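Reopening this one. Same input as before:
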Amino acid sequence: MKRWDLIVIGMGLAGLTAAKAAAEKGAKVLIVGRGMGSVTLFGNTIDLLGEIPPGKDMQGDLTRWIAAHPHHPYAKTGWAGIEASLGAFRSLFPPPYTFDTVGSGNSLVPTGVGTLRPSYLLPATMTAGVGMSPSDTIIVGLKGFKDFQGDTVSLHLQCRGVNLSLPRYGLEGLTAIALARLMDEESFRERLGEAIRSQMAGEKRVGLPAILGVSAPADVLKTLEAITGAKVFEIPMLPPSIPGLRIFHRFREALIAQGVTFLMGNPVTAAKVKEGRCEEITVHNPPIATVFRAENYILATGRFLGGGLWADMERITEPLFHLPVFQPESRGLWFRERFFQPEAHPIHRAGIVTDEDLRPVDSEGRVLLRNVRAAGSILAHHEAIEGHSSEGIDIATGNLAAGRALSS
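Same output, byte for byte:
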C-alpha cells in the first residue's frame, strides 16, 4: 500500500493551500474531499479583515489587531505568515488575471445586493468597481437570469441600470456557469458589448454580474472594455461563484502539475487513531471502502456547511476524529436574542482549539493527535463571515499547517 507524506482532508481554500505548500516542499500529497469546497460557492475576493477601514495600512493595523486577539487563528501565523501565504496564493495568478490590492489596504467592493463590502485582494475583473460613483456607472443585468437582479443592485447603488436581452442566444433560465461559458466565446461577448454600448449614456464604468468567463476572464474583460469604451467590473452574486470556480480550477491545475493526487467526490468516513497518532483514514466509495495511510494529516473540512462540524439538539461535535469542540455551554447560548444584530452569534466562534503548531488540544492544552493539524474555518475563536476574514484565515492557516506538518 502506498504511503503518503501528507493527506489533506477537505478541498476548500485551506485544504488547497495546504496541498500546494506541501507539494512545493517535495512532499507526496493526497487531497481528499467529498466535493469542490465552499470556494466554488462563495469565493470571489480574498478578505483579510473587514474591521480595518479602507485606506488604512493593513500591516500595522492588523498586527495591532492580532495583539488584541491572542486566540484568533491569525495569532498563530502573525503578519509575516499572512503576508507569505498571500504571496504564495498570488503567484498562482500571473497577469493578466491577477489578484491585487487597490491601494495599501482594504477596498469597498460592490455586491449583488447593492451594498459595498470591504475586501483586500481583488481579481482583475473587479478592481474597476472600487471607487465607483452613481453618476459614472451603469449596472447591466440579463433578462431571464435570476441570480442577479440588476434593477435592485442599481437602485441600492443609486446608479442607472438596464436589463439586456439577447434573443439569438436564448438566455432565459440559463445558469451562471452556462452564461460564463458563453462569455468564453468571442462572438457572444462581442455581441454583448455592442448591446451594452447601445444602452450607455456617457457612463465610464459598467457593472456586470460575476460571469465574465470561466477559462479566459481577462480576455472577456478586454473585449467588453474595448467595445464599450468604459471600465468594466464584475459584481459578486448568489452561489455558485464563477470567480471561486476559477480559483478552484487554477489550484487543481497547478497541484496536478506538481504531482498531487486528487480524490474528489468520496467522503472520509473513519480515522484510525492509536497512541496519539492517526494511522490511517477510510474513504468510502460505495460499495468499496479504501484505506489510505500517511505520516501526517491536515483536517480542513470546514464548519457546518462542509461537514467538519455537526450539530444536534444539544452539542456540536467533530465527526471524524471526535475532537473536542470549543462551544457555548448550552444550546440556549448558541444564538443571541435577536438574529440580526451587530454582534456575531456565539456559535460562530465554535471550532477546534489547537496549539501553536495547529495540532488539536484538549481543555488543558494537551496535544491529542501529534500528526494531525487543523486549518481553515474549522478552527475556533474567529467570526470569519462577520469579520470578512474567511479567505485570509483559510490561506494563512493552510500554509502554516503544511509547513509545520512537514517540519515535524
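So the earlier flakiness isn't reproducible anymore. For the record, Residues 127-235 form a domain with the Rossmann fold fold (CATH 3.40.50).
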